[in-house]
Each structure stands twice: as structure tokens, then as C-alpha cells.
Amino acid sequence: MARLEKVGAVAEIANRFQASSAAVLTEYRGLTVAQLTTLRRSLGEGSTYTIVKNTLTKRAAHDAGITELDELLSGPTAIAFIGGDPVAAAKGLRDFSRANPLLIIKGGVLDGRPLSAAEISRIADLESREVLLAKLAGAMKGSLTKAAGLFQAPLSQVARLAAALVDKRSTEQGETPAGESTATTESAATTESAATAESAATTESTATTEPEAAAVSESESES
């Protein structure tokens, strides 16, 4: 391979490391072209499976800031560059390797952190992103329903307490509402005031009539 071609290949692999959320290194010795095609399809949308040269890949990984893959770059190597859901891709690799033991998962890297083959297997046991999002949505809906219940409960308790206090106050006042009691007191005071005024007027009228009666009597006597 010419020098310019090597430089271009290194740059391309480095870009794939940087653009992918994860990368899994495998040994593919003995797999047929048809099997490799099936493997590529099992990785899911946004992922690729590329056969690489170890020396160029090591240099590309270093250019991308990844130095933990050196010991994995030996023997025939192909890399699954994962651009979609890492869990779905890990499941695809694991299931394919179970059906085709010639595929050996060496290890990889996830978000810049190195992964062992055992860790990749554990990732494959996780639930997919879609399932996790569905569960999260269900949990949030349940939490909102519980929160609404907690907010409503105190309000209903306060309403019942207020009604109980009103009933208790009415009982203590002899079943007479406060407004009615006040009105009755004011009416009684008004009636009493009117009666007093009328009595005073009668007394004054009587006092005026008595002198007049005395004058009439005196006049009759003189006659």
C-alpha cells in the first residue's frame, strides 16, 4: 500500500472511532462472505463491520486518543463501528457468535472507555434503548398520578375539617346562625327605642292637656 493510501486509511479509521459511540474488535477467521454479510445486518442501523489492518488501526486509534486497544490488535481483525444503539449491536454480535463460534469478540471501547469481552457480553444482556424509554415513560406516568393524589388528599381533608368546624359552631350557638342572632338583637333594640320615644310623647301630651283642663274648670266656676 502506498504511503498516501496508508495515510488516507488511517484517517478514515480514526474518523470512524471518533464518530462511533462504540467499537468492538473481533476475530473473523474462517467466516464466509455470506456469514459476514449476515453479521453486518445483525448490528443494526448506523453500524458497520470493517476488516482492518492491525498496524494502521493501532495508529488510527492513537490519533483518535485511544491507546487501550493495542493488545487486541493481533491476528485477523475486523471492527464493528457502532453508530446506533450499543446494546442492540452487542446483542447482535453475541447472538451471531453463539450461532457461529468462529467469530471471537476480543473487546472494544464505549464512549472512550475500554471494554473487555465479558463487559460487552453484559451490555448485550441489558434491555434495548426503546424498552428502557418505554419503562421510563411508564414510571413517570405512575409517579405523576401518585403526586396528583398526594396533592388532592390534603385539600379534601381541609374541606371536611372546615365543614366540621361550621357544624360544631352552629351547635354551640343553639343552631342559630351568627348573622341571624345579630339581626334579632338589632331589631329588639330598635323596637325598645321606638317604645321609649312613644312613651315620652304621651307624657308630654298629658302634661299639656292638664293646664288646659284646669283653665276650663276655673272659667266655669266664675260663671
Written account of the structure:
- The protein is of the alpha+beta class and 223 residues long.
- The protein folds into two domains: 124 residues, Ribosomal protein L10, N-terminal RNA-binding domain (Alpha-Beta Plaits), CATH 3.30.70; 48 residues.
- Helix content is 66%, strand content 13%.
- It is built from seven helices and five strands.
- A five-stranded antiparallel sheet has the order 2-3-1-4-5.
- It is elongated and about 110 Å long.
List the SSEs and their pairings.
Blueprint: H1 3-19, E1 22-27, H2 33-42, E2 48-52, H3 54-63, E3 77-82, H4 86-99, E4 104-110, E5 113-116, H5 117-124, H6 129-172, H7 178-222
Antiparallel strand pairs: 1-3, 1-4, 2-3, 4-5
Helix pairs in contact: 1-3, 4-5
Describe what is shown at a glance:
The chain is α+β, with helices and mostly antiparallel strands.
Class from helix and strand fractions: alpha+beta
Remind me, CATH topology of the largest domain?
Alpha-Beta Plaits
- Beta-strand percent range: 5-15%
Q: What is the average of the pLDDT values?
A: 74
Q: Which percent range fits the helix content? A: 55-70%
CATH level-4 homologous superfamily of the largest domain: Ribosomal protein L10, N-terminal RNA-binding domain
Q: Keywords, please?
A:
single chain, 223 residues, alpha+beta, Alpha-Beta Plaits, 2 domains, disordered C terminus
